[in-house]
Every structure is written in structure tokens, then in C-alpha cells.
């Protein structure tokens, strides 16, 4: 588990010589082991925020501390696991080799890496260890990408809509499985999504980003027991609270 502290975070992109702000004055804290969802309309800076936390983008200003380290330090220490929308599996490598790739590229002798066979069992792909990605369905490819995300035993999971391209039923199945894995490993998790219902199903807390440029508009605590029932009136009330925050952010 790892604590996240973000203060005064801002980022802008150059656009034909002018400054295009993606984020402005974002500040929040995530407790160790907390599952936090980030919601907002397209273009509000959700993915930019996650890339900054992953150490992939340097912010224009502000500070990010992950367990007392900068984002780049935490990434160098292999404390950060990143999962994007595309599974990005190497088509010429078998599933087991794709999962083991991060361990081989970034070996950490001082830290025992999870066993690849065990990871494949956790995500239900033990029978496909020797298959190539082309033989897998979209959901199975994302399961392989999830196993790869777990392979280094990172204490922080950053997930940028990893199941967005899947059909609704497969997406619900995979988010339920991911929640089980989060309960097992108990990392700190940040989950970017456009889906308010998904955010309420998964998260302890939901951060609402406004747009033009992205600012933190609201924080909504999800005080519902897991597993969560979408027919529960309290679930609907939480969804409505988040929706109102999004509408107010316009």
C-alpha cells in the first residue's frame, strides 16, 4: 500500500504557440489501500492526471508524492503498475511470456516477483499460457494485461479505463474480478472511468474533475457495503450525487 499526495498540480500543452491547460490547481490525498475512482467528461484531464502520477508526464507545476517519493522515483522503484485501455500485448510472444515481460525487462533481485503461473490462475488464463494474443478474445487479452500489471507486485495500481472497449457484460465480470484481486493484494488503486455506475460499484471514494481546464470539483465518499447492488436506493442516490457534481462542473 502507498499513500498519494497531490498539491497544486497543473499541466498545460503547447497548441500552436498558445497554452492549453489540461489541469489546474488539483489537490487531493489518497490513503494507503484506498480504491479511488476519477470521473469526468472527455478532455477534463483524467488521463493526463494518471500519466503524471505514473511518472510518464512531468507536470507544469505542483507536487506529487507517492509514499514520500516523486512519481518518477516510485516508478523507478517499481512501486507503480500502469494499465491502459489497450492491452498492448506483444503478438509474437505467448501469453506467459507477455505476463513475465515486465519482470525480465526490470528485474528486482531484492524483491520476490509473483509467479507467472500463479498470476495466470488468478485471472483464469492458466489454460492459455502457451497461446498467442491473437487466439484470445478481447476480455481474455485484458485478463492477460491485468496479470502483467500484477507481475511486479507494485503497491499502486493506476488504471486508465482498461475495460472501456469491452462489451458491458464482460466489463462487469472483469471489474468484479479486479475488485477481488484488489481485496487479495490490497494496493492503493486509482481508476479512471466515464461510467458513474462503474465508479460507484468499485470505489471507496470518487473524485469528480471539471473541464476547461480540469479542476477537482467534488469528492464523493461511497459508503456502501461490498458487493454493491445497483438496485439499492442508496446506490442510486450516490450516482445522482456524482451526476449533479458533474453537471455543476460545466
Describe the fold and architecture.
34% of the residues lie in helices and 26% in strands. The protein is of the alpha/beta class and 250 residues long. It has a domain at 83-153. Strands 5-6-7-3-8-9 form a six-stranded mixed beta sheet, sandwiched between helices. Strands 2-1-4 form a three-stranded antiparallel beta sheet, with helices on one face. Strand 6 (156-160), helix 6 and strand 7 (188-193) form a beta-alpha-beta unit. The radius of gyration is 18 Å and the shape is globular. The model has no long low-confidence stretch (mean pLDDT 87).
Keywords, please?
250 residues; three-stranded antiparallel beta sheet
N-end to C-end Cα span: 34 Å
> Can you count the helices?
8
Uncertain spans: none
Biggest sheet, spatial arrangement of strands: 5-6-7-3-8-9
The average pLDDT value, as a whole number, equals 87
Estimate the helix proportion, in percent: 25-40%
Number of strands: 9
Radius of gyration: 18 Å
Largest beta sheet, briefly? 6 strands, mixed
SSE series:
EEEHEHEHHHEHEHEEH
Shape: globular
Structural class: alpha/beta
**Quaternary state of the chains:** single chain
Briefly characterize the structure:
The protein has 250 residues and is of the alpha/beta class. The protein has helices at 46-53, 71-76, 95-105, 116-122, 138-150, 168-185, 196-202, 233-248; strands at 4-15, 18-30, 35-39, 61-66, 80-83, 156-160, 188-193, 205-210, 215-221.
